Structure formats: structure tokens, C-alpha cells
Protein: GntR family transcriptional regulator
Organism: Sodalis ligni
Amino acid sequence: MAITRYQNLASILSQRIEQGLYPAGIRLPSIRVLSKEHGVSITTVQQAYRELEDQQLVEARPKSGYFVSPLKTRPELPAVCSMSQCSLSIPQWDQVLEMVGPLKDGEITFVSAAPDVSVSSLRPLTRALSHLSQRHDLRTLSYDDVRGSLELREQIARLLIDSGSHMDAGNIMITNGCREALSIAVRCVCAPGDIVAVESPSFHGSLQLLHGLGMKVLEIPTDPVNGISVEALELALDQWPVKAIMVTPTAHNPLGYNMPLERRQALLKLAQHYDVAIVEDDVYGELSFGYPRPATITSMDDEGRVLLCSSFSKTLAPGLRVGWIAPGSYMNRAVHMKYTGSGSTASLTQLAIVEFIKQGHYHKHVRRMRGQYQRNLAIMTGWITKYFPCGTRISRPQGGCLLWIELDHGIDTQRLNALLAEHNISIAVGAVFSTAGKFHSCMRINYAQPLTADIENAIRQIGVVIHQLLSRSGFGNSVK
Amino acid sequence: MAITRYQNLASILSQRIEQGLYPAGIRLPSIRVLSKEHGVSITTVQQAYRELEDQQLVEARPKSGYFVSPLKTRPELPAVCSMSQCSLSIPQWDQVLEMVGPLKDGEITFVSAAPDVSVSSLRPLTRALSHLSQRHDLRTLSYDDVRGSLELREQIARLLIDSGSHMDAGNIMITNGCREALSIAVRCVCAPGDIVAVESPSFHGSLQLLHGLGMKVLEIPTDPVNGISVEALELALDQWPVKAIMVTPTAHNPLGYNMPLERRQALLKLAQHYDVAIVEDDVYGELSFGYPRPATITSMDDEGRVLLCSSFSKTLAPGLRVGWIAPGSYMNRAVHMKYTGSGSTASLTQLAIVEFIKQGHYHKHVRRMRGQYQRNLAIMTGWITKYFPCGTRISRPQGGCLLWIELDHGIDTQRLNALLAEHNISIAVGAVFSTAGKFHSCMRINYAQPLTADIENAIRQIGVVIHQLLSRSGFGNSVK
């Protein structure tokens, strides 16, 4: 029996869905677009979509179009952790230090949270850097305003409109990456010994930061889809004299969720009620897959209680070390900390970013990266589902380039990483994302880089070692 | 009467001395060199020098050669301040903030401690920046080792040999300028509430830093030629539980002295005896006029008690924001602070500096700048002597690009600066160099930039306003 046009198109689309090119939940191309792309009639596309609906691969939503159905075989989400007590244990600095050290030759690493900087859409940025240097522009060699380039702060204010905020340059200060912004933010609102409530798991850099500043960390149960439990947080605020809440509501590191709007509002209300500051890490905000990107908690705040921290490290390149803080009502303190902590920020990279944005490259580049990461996510999720043992739980990121994986509880990812070192592969071990001894069987991997056959082989190899560890453990050998 | 050859030469030399081309105390060209330069015999040069000796313009020192005599009319040195009590008063942040803000249009400023970055010997650096960017070198866009570029640390270790230190890359960590190095150093050895002994006057950035970190500042009397009083420091260490001593022994900011070798040794011995750490700010070290540059206190320390902080901000360009710390025995803590405080340092500027040094431009450039600053110093000292009131006291820098001026005690330089603003001129007011309310009649000016007629006019204008203030005060008007 000859295959009809619509069956052919349905088959192409179903293959793309199965290969993960159109991940679960995403909107599929419109009927008009597919008709043009494949040179077939509107009716043919409609028939193809009806066929896929029958196969329960896609869902029609009135006035919105067609969406990929949630997968039946979709891996489970990582579990939510229970509430921890205040922790002051010595942090896992040795493990973190190993993670941030230089790469070994030929090492395939999934450790860092770095974006892909090899893409051609960054060329105009390196060109701008080159031109500014070539011109021997004295601004690039001189001390800048300690708050950073006025032009860049104006551009950032414009970019922030997408996140729902209406600021001007005066509300923003440039920092050495988001890291310095976070360090300043925490010190603006807390003194050593104060308690800071955080998501669990949390970015290890933030946990180390809080430890380094002598803060006590209170890990709040965090849902892999909805984010920090506002209910658990309320109990915590009732019980402890918490001074600040530190959250990454958009494209969370490591879980990848976007906290729903109403939960952001609830969180802010809670902070107002208990008079607590919020440090909002928005470093992955612009890499949220959906459009428009979620509004920041900062944008809902009219008291200057929320301190927004972000950078161009994930959207453009981390080596630039250009971040910013919008510290709400704490600007004076923040400027003092910046002045005394590192002085002004390097001028050349700031001015190059200004050029890059002004010439219209920024939005194009970020759109491209969002697409790449979303495609990579589907492929990587597919590989892990394929190579890792049954029962492996995987996060469902709504932005960014990081995947959180929960293995069988018999597996210690620290031990796994030591074995992987023999294969010149490294992962970020789960234990460093908690100060309370959690997540020993978890790991975080980065899927930003182009997913070559080498990467697939590395993922397969990780799967092999996990299977070995499990079977050894099954035969009674101790898994350390 | 015809002028003889030796009289002619003597007249040339005395003019140069009077114009400040050969400043007081400096070694004059050797007899052999002058003989060649002027095409005269050795005997003629010897006669010329004898003539100048008779005029008391030069002094012969056995086996060393001829030196310019201390000037008879030489302005007096600034006075040494008495010991202050521990201070916890609110620092002059508003004044400092005004100083570090953006320049007004056409403003002539003597405020910052910036070097001259307009010189051609920096061209190879901007070329290196340009080439690295042009190549789209991925290293310039990626996260670097948190300790900084290995190559750059190796080059810095090599540069440090001149300061008497034998280190390797493992002893050094790159920072965002000297400011971040100082902030890390202080936090390595002190906790909030601890007492830090400092020179008086001290760089306002360091004082603000200590205040920002919650330290108590103990200002030790400091001699404008010999540096911090080791005797007064001993009394202080006996009396107070001082945790650290923070000093700038070479080309001090703002006084410009080089602390003599034996006083450096005495300081270290004291620190050992009282088990106190030393934070050594060497940011102007390479700009010491004399050759070889003085050995750092760090180089005399074999216990890892001294934390060396420096940067390329004064030798190359501040806009690069590339500094370093050699934190002695505190490396692990220092790396943690760097990782949590700002993450790795921007890669592009580090790599460009490596190129600049490797291509042999560094020493040539620094030598040139030393010469320029030394010549500028003589000219600027001349202008101030000429335009400022009699009795003005002036420091005698042995390196760097900063002059410290003490006016009649009836003058408040804060008020002076407000009046100068009407002429679009600004100076660094003395008050910010102390936390104890000292130096209200002092000011610091920068003489790095090319000393054009505009600069001379600005200095003349400052003199005019000072004279006005004095005469008003003399006629009974209140000097606020």
C-alpha cells in the first residue's frame, strides 16, 4: 500500500518527537509553517496532525495549536528532600575545589555550568573586543565608575523589561560575574551567624559562599517542578530567625524548574510578612525555554526587598566576568562593598557587550542558544534514558543547560566519579549541592556543548560504570 | 671673560638641577658618561662637578659618585601624626564616593591614583588584546582556573624575583586588581571586630575596606621618609590585641616613601614576636624610582606570615583589573574566598598581559614610566613650591605618582575642594586618609599624567584659592 502524503508527514513528525527534537510539552510548528516547509496542502497537514493525535503523540489545544504529549515512558522526577536542621558542618570544599580546577588533557567533563561559547553568533562580541582594543580606546585601560559603565547599565535596564522590571541605570551596578553580585547581596542583608533559607539542592557556589561568609544555611524542601516549598518555608520562618531567602526561581541550578508565577507571589508575600530579604539569582533567567520568560520576583517587589543578581556568563560567555546586581534599597551598601571588595569592573568587556547589544546581536544570540539547549536537552534525556539503569530519575528543565539525575540510592556519585576518572570523564557530584549530607546518589550534568558522538560515548560509559556498581552491590560487594 | 668649558658644563648641570630634571638626592650621571655626552675631557667634567660642589648644589659620595644636594629652599616634609585610639567612627564614605564617581566634562582631576595609560609603550598590550579577541580564542570566553591563568602566575613569579622573592605559580593567585587581593588578605587573617594596625595616613580604599569588613583600625604614627613607626607599633602591639599590620612599604600611598630595609626587617621581627600577620600592599613596588627596587617584607618572611598584594593597575593599566595575591600559608582560605567572592578572573586581559611580558615589553614600559614619573615629580614639586603659599609642606616620593601636601592648618581641604569645583578642578582631600579625623589640611595629588600648561594652570588656580582662603581667614572671616 502506497504511503499517502499525510502519513509520510505524520511519520516524519513522529520520528522527530521520538528522537527528542520536539520534546514533550513543546508547541509544534503551525499548520501554515509545515505546509510551506513540506510543500503540502493545509488539509494534508491537518490530516497528519489528526493521525498523531490518534497515536496520542500530540495534543491539540484550542487557539494555541498542537503540542507534544507528555511521554508515557517519561523517567520519573527526582524526589523532594525533607526539611533539614540548621547546618554548620564543614562544607565539601575539597570536592568543589577539584571541580573548579583546570581540565586534564582530553577530559570529557559535564561538571561546569558553562554555556557553549564556540557558536558563531558570539563572533560579533569578539570582534567588538578586538576593535575596542585596536583603537587603543583609553576607556578600556582606565578605572571605570565603580558602579560600572553607564551605557551598559542602561542596556541592562532595557533587557530587564522582559523580566517585568522597570529600572534605570541608577538601580543597577556592574559586578565581576553573578558570583560577586551574590556575595554583595548576601552581605547587604546578613551578618555572619545569620540564617539564610535556600533551595535544596542549591548551587554549590552559593552554599560555599554562605559558608565562607559565616552564614547558617537552612535547606528547604524543593520540588523539582514547582521549586522551593512555600509551605515548608513558612514553617521555617515561623521557627527560625531567618534573615534572607536565596532562590533561583527561573531555570534553577541544578533542578531546571521555573517556579510558577503564583508561587513566586506567595514567596514574596511570605518575605514581606516575616520582613525577610530575598536574594534572587536570575543568572539563567534569559535562557528560560518558554516565551515570554517568567517575571522575576524582583519585578513584583515595590519595597526594594529583593536583590536581583545576574550576569552575562550564561547568556554570552563566563570568561567576560560581567555580571550585575540590582540591590533594591541596598544600593549604598552594595556600592561600598564593590568599591572595597574589588574596585571597578574591567572596562573593555563591558564596552564590548554594549556594542554587541546595540548592534542587535544579543537577542538573536540568546534565542539561538535557547533553541540549542532545548534540543540538546531532549537528546541528552534520551541518551540517559537509554544508557542509565531503569529507575533513574531525571529533572525536566524549563531552561538553562543543566540536568539533575538521581540514581539508585545504593550508588554514591563520589565513588562513581572516582571510577569515571579512569575513563577521563567527570560529573558534578550531588553531595556538593547540599550542606546537610544529602544527594549522595545524585549528579548534575551540563548539556550545553554540541552533543557529538564522543559525548554520547561518555554518557554510555557512565551508564556502564553505574551498571557495574549496581551489580557489584547486588553481588554483596560493598558500595562505599 | 670667556666662559670655560667646565663653567659651561657646570651651568648646564645647575640649570637641570634647578629645573628639577635632576631632583634632590638623585645620583648624577657619571664622569665618563658626561664626558662622552658633551665631548669634553674627564678633567673638565671633574672641574665642573667641583664647581657645583662649591655652590653646594651637588655632593660627592666616596665610591658612589655625585648626588644632587638636598635643596636649601626645599619645602618641609609633612608632619608625623600622634598615635590615635581605636576608631570605630563612621568612615567618610560620602567623600570617597564622590571621589570615585564619574568625571565631569572638562574636569581637571588630581584625585585618582591612576597611572598614565596614554603612552605608546602600552600599544603592544592593546594589540595583544585585539589579536586574542580576533582569533576568537575560546580561552578568553571560558571560565578560567579559579586561581587564574597558570602562564600569568608563572610570569608574575618571575617578576617577583626583583623584589627578592622566590616563588612559583602555586604561591600566587590572580585577583580583580589589588583591591580584591587586599580584601581577601584581610579576611584570611582577621575576623570582624579584630584590630588592624595601619599607617597614618593610609590609602582611603584600604581604610574603607577595613571598615566595610567590620575591622577596628589602629592608626600608627608614620614618618614621611621612614614609614610606619616601628617603635609606636611595638607600643600598640603591647597594648592591643592587634591581629594584622597592613602596610605599603614601597612608594607608599599617599606619602611616597620607601621604608628603609632595616625598618622592614624590624617590622617583620615585631610581627613574629607578637604573632601578627602582615598584609603588604606592593601595588607601587615596581614604580620605585631607585634601582634595584627595595626587597619586599614578604621576601624576608619564611613562615608564610606576610600576605603580598599587588596588581598591574599602576604599572600597566587599572582598567585591566588584573592583580594578584601571594597569601603565604593562607592559600587554601584565599582560594575559597576568591571562588565564592567573584569566581575566576576574566581570561582575556590575563592572556594579553602574558603576551606583553613574554614579548619583552613589560620591563621597557615600566622603566619608561618610572622615568616619566620621576621627571613629573620634580616639575610638580616645583610648581607647588612656586604657586602654593610659603610654609606648604610636601612629601618626597621615592616612587609612584602621588604627592602628599600639607597646607596651613587653617585650611580645610574639603572646603578648598568645594571651591575648586567651581573651576572644574578636583583634588583628593586629606580627611579620607584617616579614620580618626586627621589630615583636614592635607591633600593628595596625582602627577602621572603629562604635565601640560593646563595642568600648570590648574595648580596655579589651586594656589590662588588657597591664598584667598588664607587671606579671608586672616581678615577674620571664618574658614569653615
Observations:
- Residues 43 and 348 of chain B are 56 Å apart (CA to CA).
- Chain B is about 40% helix and 15% strand.
- Chain B touches chain A through 62 residues (CB under 8 Å).
